[in-house]
Every structure is written in C-alpha cells, then in structure tokens.
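user: Please supply your own:

assistant:
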Amino acid sequence: MECLYRRDYDADRLLREHPLELRDPNKLLVFELALSGERAAGTISVTRWNASALPAKLGDTELIAMPGYYDYAGDDPGVWHVNFADPHLFFAYGSSLLAQDELQCAEHPALGSVREALVAEKLAALTEENGIATPVLVAGVERRCTIATAPCADRPRGLYGNQFAHADAATIRAAITVHHPAPRSNLIAIAAPVGGGAYSREQISYASSAAYTGFAAAVEESARRWPGVPVEVRTGFWGCGAFGGNRELMTMLQLFAARSAGVARLRFYAFDDAGRADYERGVRAMIDVGEPDLDAIVERGYVWGVSNGT
C-alpha cells in the first residue's frame, strides 16, 4: 500500500485558517448551528492512497445487514464509514446539494476546511486521478450535528438530495440536532464509477480497486492508531443512487474488498426490505463467483440502472 500524502491538522486551527466557502444560505445556516458552542477540538488526520488491485486471498469478514441509514452512534476505535465521494474531494460541501457526500460534510463541517487546506497546500484533493482510484481517509473529524433527512409530518418530502435546497430556514433548524460534546468519525472517501448499459471490465476493475484500496488503507491506519483493535467498515449502496449503479454488483465488490483487505466486520446499511433483498443477492453472487475474478464477474452481464435523481 502506497500512501501518497499524510497530513495532521489541529481542528480548531484548521477551521480558522481555512474557512469554509459557502454558496447556499441553507448550508450557511447548517454550519452556523453546527459550529456554535465549543470550539473544534482534536487532531484530524488525512491520508491519500494509490490504488492497489485485489489480492486473491480472502479472509473471514463478519457480514451484517442493517436496516435504515448510516448510524454514526459513538466514536469507537477501528470503525470507519464510507463516504460516497466525488473524484474532487468534498467539492460540493458549500452547495445546495445534500446527497450522501454533502450530508457527511454538513454533519462534519471540518471536512470542508480539509479540502480548503489541501488546495491551499497544492496537494491533490482527489479521490481519482487519471482514471485511477486514490481513496482519501479522514480520521478523527468531529460530527458536530445530525440532520434528520427522512420524510415526516413536518417534512413530508424529507430533506435528502434536491429537497434540501427547497426547504425554508425554520424547517432546516427543526431538522438539526447539535452535539455537545461532538463525537468523532473516521471516513473512507472513495468515488464510484459512472456509466450506462452493460458494465465494462474497466468499470468493474476500477470499483473493485477503489473499494479494496480504501478498506485496506483503513486496516493499515487502524493498526497505526489502535493496535490490535478489529476494523469495522460501515457502508451501503455505494454509487447506486444518483449514478444508477447496480446494487447486486456494487454489494458483491465491496464484500470481496472487505474480505481481501482483512476487515473484521462489514456493516451494510440496506435501507428497507427491497434493499435487504438486493444486499442478499450480492452476498449470493459473491458466494457463486467464489473469488474476485474480474473475468468471471464480467461474464455475469451486469447492467447499469437509472439515477434516482438525488
């Protein structure tokens, strides 16, 4: 595993020296609320990794299907959350968007300052370069707030995706819970492939390499930070929302990546019953294929779906 760069930032100094650039009034309100109260604390560690191919050897990874959406409860050592990243790291944090990447940035506001700091240092704030995956890991970032995005009586269409831009200030305020004290999260930023029609070998190879490299980097960083602590990765249908990725395929590739990387536990958030069924198909596909053989996976004829519009 090749680490392309490593940076450690004092969180409070980072936010002061690399202020957020916010272009949307609703995002401005979110960040004002999230950063109210205590000053940011702790050290944020940022690493960027060069892509590696999956090894043939597979380990034993405990696979757990979870209902609903990501749960950041607690800040346990060795636990990492996948950020469904854009190739340009955290680039839309200040926009009116609120898909998975932007939601993580809104709840962890220092992520925007991480981007600004990397750009200022002329370091590549990229999770992909020249068609090759370069996952970025961020460890120890405070989750300053929670944004309730699910539909409810007061927000019948919810706040996720494009709905966030249409909400008024009162609705935004009512949806936010500010955390005192703020727990810390560890994130794996990996960009999913984009495409349509039948999946190409190159697209499948890219996705498998991106997931494996991100997960293996989390195992390596965990060994440095918390020696002997088992690694848990929390993820979901990476690349299957706005990009219309194939849920069965993207599940299978992440399962192979976790087992190849030596992840002790993978907690997969499947949303609902339909998602659970898609996840189970991914598990069966992994068992049928047996090993991360790209040619065998391509022969299964996976096809892209359609964007969900978020």
In short: The chain has a mean pLDDT of 93. The radius of gyration is 19 Å.
